[in-house]
Amino acid sequence: MMKRRWHVIINPNAGNKTISRDWPRIKTLLENANLDFGYTFTTQPLQAIELTRQAIENGERNFIAVGGDGTFNEVANGIFLQGKINTEECLLAAIPVGTGNDWGRMYGIPADYQKAVELIVNEKFFVQDVGIVNYFNDGKRKKRYFINIAGLGFDALVAYKTNKQKETGKVSAFSYFFNMLTGLFQYKPGPMRIEIDGDKHEFNVFSITVGICRYNGGGMMQSPLAVPDDGLLDVTVIKKIGMGTLAMQLKNLYNGTFIQHPKVLTFRGSSIKIIPVENIFRLESDGENLGFGPFEFSVLPRALKVVIGEKNF
């Protein structure tokens, strides 16, 4: 069998810029594992998308994303936005360096560099679904692929606040939780129309998540029932809720039992439309700020081959 060649895409700002210090160590681990690889650093947001597309044009098929969930998202988008090859020819692996690492939690991909490299060497594969969201930014219709979870409303506000801190280098493992608490005093719920495979609803919404996988926000299980290869999107709606009640439910976000609360509804479907009625709701996807509604979600079943450890579902 021909030895697999990898193209490594590194986000030097990941993990509060720790990758700038840690890359030489990761590179040595890859070399010691006798992997054949080349590598490229990103220098600005969204550049990993174009770097992945260019690499595919140059014959690369196997990618290692070194960074956080946003870096993995960008590499996946590069795979799906190129038009040269069938996406089934590509393989995506991850070495997590970010502050959340939620996509990796689903598949037992550790933050330990040595163990992450060992998984790449072992080449245990899984083929997961990929979500698509259409939205608006600067008045223009946009499209983005996502491999973990998209959030609207309160979730997107917290991601926006956290990403602003990342830009200043002041983010930490506790930033998401801190921004969630402070965001409670800033955010105003509002009505949304939601259509799931033709079934129509309208709720006064605190937040909505649309998930391929289960974890976001540094280990919260906002889509605790999601199965990443069932061809369906898992929708969790938290209706308008009192701050005291919400604060009491925070611990249940980490084990998924918050969905048992009467203010929380769960749905599954392959086609989701979400239309804000009054308020302007933000959208985030895999932790990255995108834009505003109306939103349309769909799913590509079993579309992305990834390297995993142990399944946590």
Question: Overview of this structure, please?
Answer:
With 313 residues, this protein is α+β, with helices and mostly antiparallel strands. It has 2 domains: 5-123, Probable inorganic polyphosphate/atp-NAD kinase, domain 1 (Rossmann fold), CATH 3.40.50.10330; 132-300, Tumour Suppressor Smad4, CATH 2.60.200. Helices cover 29% and strands 37% of the residues. The chain is built from 9 helices and 16 strands. The chain has helices at 14-17, 19-32, 47-57, 69-81, 102-106, 113-122, 154-168, 175-183, 243-253, and strands spanning 5-10, 36-41, 62-67, 91-96, 125-137, 140-146, 149-153, 190-196, 199-211, 215-216, 220-221, 233-239, 264-269, 271-276, 282-285, 288-307. A 6-stranded antiparallel beta barrel has the order 7-9-8-14-16-15. Strands 10-11 form a two-stranded antiparallel ribbon. Helix 4 links the parallel strand 3 and strand 4. Helix 7 (154-168) crosses helix 8. It is globular and about 55 Å long. The protein starts with a strand and ends in a 6-residue tail after the last strand. The model has no long low-confidence stretch (mean pLDDT 90).
Count structural domains: 2
Rg, Å, rounded: 19 Å
Query: Helix segment count?
Result: 9
Low-confidence stretches: none
DSSP summary, beta strand count: 16
* CATH fold name of the largest domain: Tumour Suppressor Smad4
Strands across the major sheet, in which order? Answer: 7-9-8-14-16-15
Q: Concise description?
A:
With 313 residues, the protein is of the alpha+beta class. It has 9 helices and 16 strands. The longest helix is centred in the middle third of the chain and has 15 residues.
